Amino acid sequence: MATPAAPRDRWLGPLLLRLHFYAAILVAPFILISAASGALYALTPQLEQLVYAEELTAPSEGPPLPLAEQVAAAQAHVGEGAVVTAIRPAPESGDTTRVMYADDSLGESESRAIMLDPATAEIRGDLTVYGTSGSLPLRTWVDQLHRNLHLGEVGRLYSELSASWLGVIALAGLGLWVRRARRARRTRRARDLLLPDLRARGYRRTLSLHSSVGAWVLLGALFLSATGITWSQYGGGNIGSIREAFGFTTAAVSTELPQETTAGAEGTSDTGDMDGMEGMTGKDAGEHAEHESHHDAPAAGAAESAGPGEAAAAPRADLGQIDRVLAAGRSANIDTGLVEIRPPADAGSAWVVEEIQRSYPTKVDAIAIDGSTLEVVDRTDFAEADLAAKLTRWGIDLHMGSMFGLGNQIVLFVIASAVVAMIIWGYLMWWQRPPTKGGSGFGKPPRRGALRRAPWWGAALVLLAAAGIGLMLPLMGVSLAAFVIVDTIVGRLRR
pLDDT at residue 315 above 70? Predict the structure, then answer.
């Protein structure tokens, strides 16, 4: 005799099944692209080392030349009119130094980077780099594919839709897995919930693969969904507003010099060096692009950039003192080899020396230094940031695969590949389900009406949850409303 279904199972289970089925069918193509490109992105650090080996490696041995000499060699290569925005000294022996320039022909958050051998100042490469991660063209191309399909701001809607629905589909799948687990206890087949039943055939075999792999990667999928949303255009904006309201924002180092220093510096800039410096936006909303819209505010201490017509009129920075500025930063709290130095944007701004080490332990301290006195005028220490700011930083770095190096990359690749496989199995199950009357090649969908069978409190909770998600994630709310409307119309037409 069959065991009567629990009251909750008469509506909640079918509702989750219908949500999981239809959402996956309609949104899975977006998630498939996002997961596949994300898996490829996880491999790009190693691919960069292979493709750009000449630009990234310095063959000469010996002590590095002063940074001022390296910058002068880069300036001679690009021309005196070019504007230096940042310098990244070679972090280790065998690495190249990067001198980055503003270029109006490049896109947002892109810079022209000259790679030099630090021991000889030989030019090793001239490439476009992107964001604070310093992505080279190959990784930038993959990142833009993952973030917006190379379609700009319009394309970002795809990634937001993907990240929003991935978490909902995963949670609905978890509910279905728990539902099967309760039944499996009665049939003594609980093992098949965590390990695929390869003895089965057809639909049951595919279902076993889909559900067991989903159970193993559930937490990873939820993490990618949550962190991916923070980079999104609308949902990420709402999350940013909440963080600001509660004060959970990352402190930015101030580059403003004291008034007396600014007054004394007027008219004393060295006009024999390079043109005025534009401030560099580092942790831009596009670094994976940190996804870095994947996703951040301007870097600590980044000054507002001058317009195209203002750069030539800005005071000129004396880049000859860059070695002294770096030494002043080292004597404060800059103690990692991965460092970026940004010249002042104008006479009233300070130099910025910032750590850019995203691997654990995180090193992102920043120092603002008065170029005339070499005094520290402001500083930010990651150790003193609040927990919410630290979790945000760590979440971004984990999502990008930079926090734990190769191990982090492998985990991301496995999770993303598993999501791709589950989507393929999901479509295969749709094909393998018993067809509808009339001979359709596709399986019949779960029957409608689950919400009508729910008690009043159950229906109220579902509606409140949908409204909350729609307000927090507007793009998902619009797509969910569209799905409900279309489903209602189709149901009425069929009746």
Answer: no
